[in-house]
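>> received
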Amino acid sequence: MTHSDPPEEVMWEGRFVSARRRGRWEYVSRVRGIGAAVILAIDDGHLLLVEQYRVPLGRYCIELPAGLVGDEAGNEDEPVTMAAIRELEEETGYRAGSMVTIGEFHSSPGLVTESYTLLRAGDLARVGPGGGTASEDITVHRVALAELAAFIDAARARGCAIDGKLLAILGPTICY
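>> returned
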């Protein structure tokens, strides 16, 4: 199947994102085509999650650990697996002995061009407290898979947003 799009127009560009238009369709892109690594880390039947404040939402959000790939100057060619290992340890305090790529996905294809690579961490070892960098305020949650739906319900009740990627894990428990 082929499709011909009108030329792309940059309507506005900031340091990290740009607003673009093709014909009458408006959308957002990361500048320099930077992607993200999202990590599925299950440690002895427990899922590692992070909670952090998200400015666009105006509240805290429960998410899988994640981070940008190659966003640091001089490290633009960073392999996605290395970014995932780095981000997992930085955010959660867990080091992965292995990192397997599951695939590339698009989170909101009608609004943003951003894709992310989902990776599965293995051979996990706790090596630090996590919490992110000095500019981040991340709380780490280690949640038993059997209690995940209740954990998310409780987080939602206290006002947290829930990242849609968690549907992939919750799916069978909430859809049937």
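>> The CA atoms of residues 39 and 119 lie 5 Å apart.
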